[in-house]
Structures are given as C-alpha cells and as structure tokens.
Design a protein that fits this description.
Length: 76
C-alpha cells in the first residue's frame, strides 16, 4: 500500500522532528557504552557513527522520496 503525498509529508515531518532526535540520542549512548565497555578508539566510534548515520535512512527512503516536489495529485 503506497502512502499518499500528504501522508508522506506528514510522516517525514514526524520522523525528522521526533524520531531522528531520539535516534541521535540512542546512537550517542551506544557509542558511549561501547567506549566505556570495550575501550574502543576514536576511529571505531567514527565508523559506528557513519554506519548509524546511513542506517536510519535506508528503511525510510520511500517516505522521503519526492516530498520536496509539488503535489503530483494537485490540480493546476
């Protein structure tokens, strides 16, 4: 079931304003836990941040696709 243009716009706003900040907090806590638990280096933290920074968008890509474009269903 495909989302309508309005639904994708609303969901993208919810994701960017609520879910993404929560995801950032989880990512920072995860790297802090890794640093305290396993004494990882700065390069390992960087790799974890890069992987987590890319991982959040992969399942949400269809929601954000075309949101910045004009509504395709709108009447001219």
């Amino acid at each position: 079931m495909a989302l309508s243009y309005k639904a994708r716009r609303r969901w993208s706003l919810v994701i960017l304003l609520i879910a993404l900040p929560l995801y950032i907090v989880v990512a920072v806590n995860l790297t802090d836990w890794l640093r305290m638990r396993y004494d990882v280096g700065i390069l390992t933290e960087l790799v974890v941040f890069i992987v987590l920074g890319i991982a959040w968008i992969l399942p949400l890509k269809p929601v954000f696709r075309g949101v910045g474009q004009p509504d395709p269903d709108a009447r001219d």
